Automatic annotation (TrEMBL):
<keyword id="KW-0812">Transmembrane</keyword>
<feature type="transmembrane region" description="Helical">
    <location>
        <begin position="89"/>
        <end position="108"/>
    </location>
</feature>
<feature type="domain" description="Putative zinc-finger">
    <location>
        <begin position="3"/>
        <end position="37"/>
    </location>
</feature>
<dbReference type="InterPro" id="IPR041916">
    <property type="entry name" value="Anti_sigma_zinc_sf"/>
</dbReference>
<keyword id="KW-1133">Transmembrane helix</keyword>
<keyword id="KW-0472">Membrane</keyword>
<protein>
    <recommendedName>
        <fullName>Anti-sigma-W factor RsiW</fullName>
    </recommendedName>
</protein>
<dbReference type="Pfam" id="PF13490">
    <property type="entry name" value="zf-HC2"/>
</dbReference>
<dbReference type="InterPro" id="IPR027383">
    <property type="entry name" value="Znf_put"/>
</dbReference>
<comment type="similarity">
    <text>Belongs to the zinc-associated anti-sigma factor (ZAS) superfamily. Anti-sigma-W factor family.</text>
</comment>
Length: 205
């Protein structure tokens, strides 16, 4: 499998649209390609962070703010449209960065309340901003905690993602079957989103 095909498969896999056969091919390619494995890890972290964010975060007047922030025209209209026509990729990238940065600042300024997501939360203990997996209890599936600290005393049969929080040292009784990921800074989300976009442009060109 070529790397550009693997990139497409990564996005389809994270969206849940990749067949079992193609998934196996993707995993085989990732095992033998460190560059694609690093890219997939970045995309996976971004996907986990985006899913953990509240949905209705784009301000109603975002379009007006973006238009007002653009520089005033200094060239004739024909020259500007001609330049955009000659550099479509750069123009699209610039608009993407402006929109993503505006959305990012809006989202990051919203409430920083604790958020816990996953298919099996019944065995968790939540004390303030602390999320505890008790000793002798098992959480089945992936667990994502945002704006909180996590203490694992029992089992997690899946991945654990901690966003803007702290994973306390694992107890001797703890067991996590999947990967452990921590995203400590707001910049990570914006960086991985932008790098993912430009990487897709590079592979597509």
């Amino acid at each position: 499998m070529k790397c550009n095909v693997a990139v497409v498969y990564m996005h389809d896999y994270l969206d849940g649209d990749l067949s079992r056969e193609d998934t196996n091919q993707l995993r085989e390619h990732l095992n033998g390609c460190p560059a694609c494995q690093a890219r997939y890890d970045s995309l996976e972290r971004t996907d986990a962070l985006v899913k953990a964010l509240p949905i209705e975060k784009t301000p109603e007047n975002l379009g007006d703010k973006i238009m007002k922030s653009l520089p005033r025209k200094r060239r004739p209209t024909k020259a500007w449209t001609s330049w955009v026509g000659r550099h479509p990729a750069v123009s699209a990238a610039a608009i993407f960065v402006v929109v993503m940065l505006s959305s990012f600042m809006s989202m990051w300024n919203q409430s920083r309340e604790l958020s816990v997501s996953g298919p099996d939360l019944s065995h968790l203990i939540i004390e303030g901003n602390n999320v505890i997996v008790p000793e002798g209890q098992k959480v089945v599936g992936d667990l994502t905690v945002t704006n909180g600290d996590v203490q694992v005393l029992g089992d997690i049969e899946g991945n654990l993602t901690v966003i803007d929080g702290e994973l306390k040292p694992l107890a001797s009784t703890a067991h996590i079957a999947g990967q452990i990921k921590t995203i400590d800074r707001a910049v990570d989300w914006f960086w991985y989103k932008v790098s993912s976009f430009f990487g897709t442009l590079a592979y597509g060109s």
